[in-house]
Amino acid sequence: MVGERLTRGLILRFLISMMAGTDMKISPRSAEPSSESSKAPTGDLAKKVMEEVRLAMSENASVRGWQVTESEARSLQGLYLADATGLSCYQRRHVEDQSVSLLVYVASEDGSLGQGQREIDPMIAVAPQVESAIRSAGLIRNPFFELPRPPAVPYPEVVTSDESIERDMEGAMLQIEERAGQIVRDLHGVNVNSAEIYVNARRSLTTTSTGIVMDRRETDLYFEAAMEKTAGNAISVEANTQEVHRDLRAVTCEGLLAELPAFVQQMREETLALGGTILPPTTEKAMLLVDAGAFSDLVRAVLDQMDAATEYNRLPHLLPGAEIARGEALPDSEPLTVDLDPLLPAMALSTPFTREGLVAQQGRMIESGVVRNQTISHRMGSYLAKSPNGLTGNMVIPCGPLTKEELLASVDECIEVLSFSSLLVNSRSLTWSSEIKLGRLYRRGKLVALVKGGVASGDIRENLTSARYAAHRREFNKIGDSWHGGEGYLGPEAVLLRTGVRIAGA
Amino acid sequence: MQTAKNVSSVPEHQRESGGRPPFPDRLKPLRLLMPELLALLESGLEDQLYAFVWLEESRSLSVTAARVESLTDSVDRGMVMRIFARGGNFEEATNILDPDHLRRLARGLRERVVSALSGMTSTDPVYRPLSIEEEIRRGLPGEVMAQMPAASDSSTWLHFAPVCLADPDRTDHAILGDRAREYRGRMMSISAVQNAALADARVFVRQTVKTQVFVDRTRNLSQILPVSLAYAMAISSGGHMGRSIRGGLGGLDIAVLDDAALLEATETCLRLDQAERLKPGRYRIITGPDVTGVIAHEAFGHTQEGDTCAKGRSIATGLRSSGHVVGNASATIHNNAAIFSMGADGERAGNGMGETGTMRSSVLSYGTNGSYFFDHEGEFARLHSLIDGGLLNRPMTDLWSSVRLGEIRTANGKRESWRRPIMTRQTNTYFTPGDSTLHELIVRVKHGYLARHAHGGMEDPKGGSLTAGTEYLEEIENGRLTGRLFLGPSGGHVELSDPVFDMLARIEGKTSVEHPEGIPANKYGGCGKYHKELVEAGSGGPYILWESINCG
């Protein structure tokens, strides 16, 4: 995609633990909506679109189906500088956003099935837009498949939002601002140079021609801060050449507030530990300890190859029975096991249904280093003559027997990567590479130096051959945005990669 | 099939009128409403605050030709109302564009700001925007002045648009689909002829037309920015990719992939399956315009963003005040939204460098997707020098950082969309050209590599380091390209990484360009600040020979 040539800002790594409240619910349904909660987010526009496309379908046999999604989103956004009172807002925004989109399927005489996606323009008449969408969809030629029907069983109940945010977004924003300001005000030895707080709520209602109704409510919160040592320490503010920049994301306000003090405290400790750095040594046999965020990126690339779409598209893919690891394993290696779980409460990839409206399913994807399942959508199941399975959701990985400190002490030399500059993972070649923004060099578990710069790269399958997993479990969420897909992760806080890592440094 | 033309070949009648898209009728009612909204925001309070109203519309058509085809048709239209007071921005943003609703939002925003300011005292002067006459006296780019009426006041609708050979309004899915399928078919044919294992070829063709309106107390501006793109990607069974990208600011006539581009994407992908792996280390490197541009963007692009400086998050502030040298005499980097023509990228003809070793060079009649006439806060585009011969100049600014830092405003106030906040963002960032040919640079390399295709990049504005990715490296031995390709040490892309000062001190030579104002090729691209806030941003420059860069 085009984004692959984009330049990158600073790295996103964040940690969060979620609290599942009993008052936070999603209202999944497979029947026509009836209650107040099902009130259309965008008023009559979506209704008009559905009327027009139903009419078109009744008059034109080539129109084989449609999907209408209406969305409503609200956002409060604040950008801050730190001052004596805590955080001082210099940009405050209120955002409201409504949209309706139409996906229409049109069969051609040659037996193919085209589809076209159109965002509906509320400023012009609906009928010509529906006609245009149908006409455009007719230009596309894909293999035919029957559109999915409503599932035989109801969607499971899954917590995907915080009702308190939906009810009182300003109140949630105020709570976070006050708490964050208080924490920042009480910090010693460090300056917070900037911070950002976002509170978002979205609702989308998707209806299909076959009778599927997917009603989804989502909330998320974002806190970001950049910190450096204060003047009066060994390094003056003006001469500071290092900062710690982190963000924290959550689905619920309670979850963010619970995590915030420890998050900022950890940032402070990292900031105070900053000092002179060295380039890492050049080697083709490096060992790295990476955090949960970086490791989840590597595992997600592997999971991408287990998507049946990669098989159909003839891209590199992994089928059940395939070995993930490649190369000779070192002693004490721990083979990878990965589950997907869409039902964990209030996590980024928690959902009762797949995009097509299949019931979301838990399942084991990798067991002891061997692929157990592909993720198979309804459409790819049809194309590949496989049963769709609805597997989706948050990544769950078992922990290992050793603590992070024990892992560091278990090898002669190791770099703990605190942050990559821009970890780019290629899900096709299963390789990765990045400059090291900041790391710690250990020898037999003893901190030797801070590391900055140099390029680390790896082959994921080689990395997984001799990996070891930390004993402490960590949970975090990345909320999807225009830059990244979302991720929910429950697994070891750190992973030791002992093979397949190279470093270009000193 | 139309191809990009030299500036001089654009027919006079198109340059004067027919080639510049007019302001669309559908947005006139909203534009007529905007001065009323502005009055609701600031009328009677002009001595205490400054307000503007911003309207943007983005209409996009795309087709992807691949094993599974897809098509999109989108329109996104939203408005932002801003009050800037006591050094802070307050904004309401919405896509519910009913006039009464907008009036309610404007009144509500004013009430909130007045309430927030009621307990505050400040002796800071209130921001006062320049009049159009003052802007003209300050100097404006030729393409802006060419569209400026002889006389105007704050209520005059000033409209700006680039010359388009292909009318963006005539683009439809059939045209896009035909082009995408044609390119894909040619790539698959190349693969078949070579009896090679191309897994798939994907071609994405898109046209986006952005219409933007800015109204404040001194100006009523609009601009139309059509951006066209053709993106071809070949994928091997080994998972390697070859790509070709053409596009920028203009109609579909500039989104054209010729046979050489399609052949290169296809062959490169297949060759990468057999590519060798680079031994990690330092090498002499020549970067092409694509990679050069990423280095420019990262080197002192982000570091010279005013908001980053204002937050104390940039190393540039202290370096600027101390006059610290951050590069050698060849280290000159510009940021310039007003690129509406540029030098071609000097791609090699065929497999060699040409008999004389000189590049095919010409002047392209279009800008990049990072070009515009004014920014998202109504500031006119002007060339801005970030580094001149190794010395830092003033930072780029948005309104907030300009006021906070006491720096002059530049046209760098940008947002991802009306949904997101304004930040200081780069437009087109590029190294200025030199006086060598590419052949002359290659001859100077005993052992090293040519890096032509970018693969992302990142800068640490506080720490002064940068990394720029390249898809692969082409080996140079004893002053000649050997034809051997190298992937990174682990079989993926290659990262070029060094401290910024070190890197900028190691420029050994730059190629020249054929453009009357010395503007080199700038490439289609984008930028995510702090890994979010995605905006369009071109970047480029000449081929540059670097004494050495750490590669891994």
How would you characterize the overall build of this protein?
The complex is a heterodimer of chains A (506) and B (552). Chain A is of the alpha+beta class and 506 residues long. Helix content of chain A is 21%, strand content 34%. Chain A contains ten helices and 22 strands. In chain A, the strands form three sheets. In chain A, strands 7, 8, 13, 14, 15, 16, 17, 18, 21 and 22 form a ten-stranded mixed beta sheet that branches. Chain A is globular, with a radius of gyration of 25 Å. The relative contact order of chain A is 0.14. The N terminus of chain A is likely disordered. Chain B is α+β, with helices and mostly antiparallel strands. Chain B is built from 13 helices and 29 strands. In chain B, strands 8, 9, 18, 19, 20, 21, 22, 23, 24 and 29 form a ten-stranded mixed beta sheet that branches. In chain B, strands 1, 2, 3, 4, 5, 6 and 7 form a seven-stranded mixed beta sheet that branches. A six-stranded mixed beta sheet of chain B has the order 14-13-10-17-28-25. Chain B is globular, with a radius of gyration of 24 Å. The two termini of chain B are 42 Å apart. The relative contact order of chain B is 0.14. Classes of the chains: A alpha+beta (506), B alpha+beta (552). Chains A and B meet through strand 1, strand 2, strand 3, helix 2 and strand 4 of A and strand 2, strand 3, helix 6, strand 5 and strand 6 of B.
